[in-house]
Amino acid sequence: MTPILTLLSALYTLSAFAAHAPPPTLATYEVTAYSVGDDFTPTHGITASGARVREGVTAACPPELPFGTRVHIEGVGERVCLDRGGAIKGRRLDVYMTDRSEALRFGRKKALVLVRVK
What we know:
Elements: H1 3-20, E1 25-34, E2 58-60, E3 70-73, E4 77-83, E5 92-96, H2 100-106, E6 109-116
């Protein structure tokens, strides 16, 4: 196959895949933070998806957002839905932080969140 046909074929495949992915949504969420050993989170550091928690990556998301969904949180950055939490329902997110005192300082915030379901 010529390079042009290969490129066109790849673009067609990507556009067909993108046609099945829902469009990103933007909404206001309540965002909190958690850490391992914070009286709510088990000390083993394994998320509900089976992945290890990672600062700058892990977010606990409501059940309607499948594992692997990417969320860009205003003022926080991008995280990946890899965890769940008993109080994480509706428009709530919980971002993982390694340091417990940092998670407590983070508090509770309202933020715009761009949600991209995989």
